[in-house]
Amino acid sequence: MPYLIGADLPKEPAGDRFRALLDRPEILRMPGAHLGIAGLLAKKHGFEALYLSGAAMSATMGLPDLGMITVEDVCFYIRQVARATGLPLLVDGDTGYGEALNVMHMVRAFEDAGAGAVHLEDQLLPKKCGHLNDKKLATVDEMCAKIAAARKARRHLYIIARTDAVASEGMEAGLARARRYLDAGADAIFPEALITPDMFREFASKMPGVKLLANMTEFGRTPFLTAEEFQEMGFSMVIWPVTHLRIAAKAWDQLYAQIARDGGAQNAVDRMQTRAELYETIGYFEYEELDASLVRTIIPQGIPQRS
Asked: pLDDT > 70: what percent of the chain?
């Protein structure tokens, strides 16, 4: 059931609820869900926190993941998912949308929109997906200044520092950056684009006691690993950032091809969520009950056939 108003709303700040989930021994699993309906479906299957990917938000807007979207663009997605699900959200903060003051503005805006956590990366604009080539890195001092600014601005937001240094500077450089980022005020570390299980194990073994985030993205450099395998390697969190969008976009592509070919969607009905299933997902009847002036909807049964 979606969150509605009043008594249905969470009482604790989202950042506090995110920390509480991380205090448990099992790894925190966060599928990507940057739309309200996606968040509701993920929650239906037992997920207790969700991830909002910059790449997914950008692609939904028809843009590449090059740091082109704005703080307010992202807040639009945060607000809808936080309101629909009531779950704590980890949000992709890219490079912070600028320098220290911009980072502080981002932190306050994300908190106000309902986010529970954010990750900041040590790339320069225009940034690239962490699994692509030739990324440009900020200096350690520049990144530390952003982390310190985020820490100063936050009221409850959980701050994760992402480093893309391993791919271009090597494991030891990535670890050195991670330690500096923790000293600057990061709560956890996100080592991006590790490419073998041994690399994940090595990074975790050299960061004892530190909360670590793993990225299980498809078509990148990381082999398919399960949440349980990441936990065994020493990681506390795992995201599947763009998986939901990849599945949906493929389905949209197939649908539009089918309509173009068949002159309609009549042959795609077996792949559709029904009206009844949609209404159950979004809590349609619960909303109707909030307004006594509405006559309860009766869902049409079946689909009329041609005579």
From this structure: 94
